Amino acid sequence: MSLIMKCVIVGLGYFGKIIQSKLKEHFSVDELITIDPFNTNANFKYISDVQSIDGYWFVTTPASTHHSILLELFQKGVKNIWIEKPICNTLDDTLDIFSKKPDNVFLYCDFTWLQHEAIKELGNLSDIKHIEMKWMNDGSMIPKDVNIVTDLAVHPISILTFLLIKSKDILEKINVTYANDMSVLINGFSKNGITFNIEVSNSSSIKTRNISLYCSDQVYRWFSDDQYYIENLGSFESKDAIVSNIELFLSKNSLGYPLDIARTLETVNELFTNFNK
Fold it and tell me: Which among 14, 42, 76, 176 is least buried, having the fewest CB atoms inside 10 angstroms?
């Protein structure tokens, strides 16, 4: 176990409790403080109640609160901040956060799936021609302060960005071809001609995710019901993606492209919002 002197979790809701359990199970934390005005089990109600600024701070509150909380933590002098995806609800707020972030602050945005071993294995493949992704949810877990794009589509969008960057490519065109409150279809192509289709739905009977990469020599398929196996590639080491993200944060390593994801997410959000107007 890695020894951490102190951790502070801001927001003890669904994901905050997951972070709390991962820290307790996989890391040796000398002091673990929780902050939440709506959870009576939290140690404190407000950030201002905590006098110290040291340690590693995890922000796991609703996305609509991220901008104000990050600014408060900057002002307070906190140096190490983990923020649950998305950084902010809008690209303008995200850019504002990066423009106001002090140089001595390490800000880590948790795109959990980018530390999943399957995604990292797929990122090692070369000569990708086409990407197919389905991100199906069973109608649960969409917070009220975000839509299906910000909450669910952010995952395949982050994976798409990752795969393009690993291929030394960038997004050229993105379209929304179908959209309602429960489902969205996204397609497009990269500068180098990689095409992609993404289906995201919160109205599936089961919760499942799958990815297919069509390369020059082979098709590689991954299904979430067999998390550590890729068809035509084989099995690989299993590892907890959230723990891997925490390890990156504690070692002050960053994936380095949250703004690329934020820009693509903003484009899809705009297309989604305007689709039925």
Answer: 14
Task: Write the CA distances from 199 to 137, 185, 186, 208, integer angstroms.
Answer: 11, 5, 6, 12
Sequence-distant (≥ 6) Cβ neighbours of residue 99 within 8 angstroms: none
Total structural domains within the chain: 2
Backbone torsions φ then ψ of 253, nearest 5 degrees: -105, 140
Q: Are residues 154 and 269 in the same domain?
A: yes
Residue 223 lies in a domain: yes
Position 243 in a domain: no
| For helices 241-250 and 14-26, angle between their N-to-C axes, nearest 10 degrees | 70
Q: How far apart are CA 249 and CA 109, in angstroms?
A: 9
**124 & 177 share domain:** yes
Q: Kindly list the averaged pLDDT for each block of 10 residues, start to end, along the chain of length 277.
A: 81 95 92 96 96 95 95 97 93 96 96 94 95 93 81 95 96 96 96 98 93 97 95 94 94 87 95 86
Q: Is residue 247 part of a domain?
A: no
Q: Is residue 244 part of a domain?
A: no
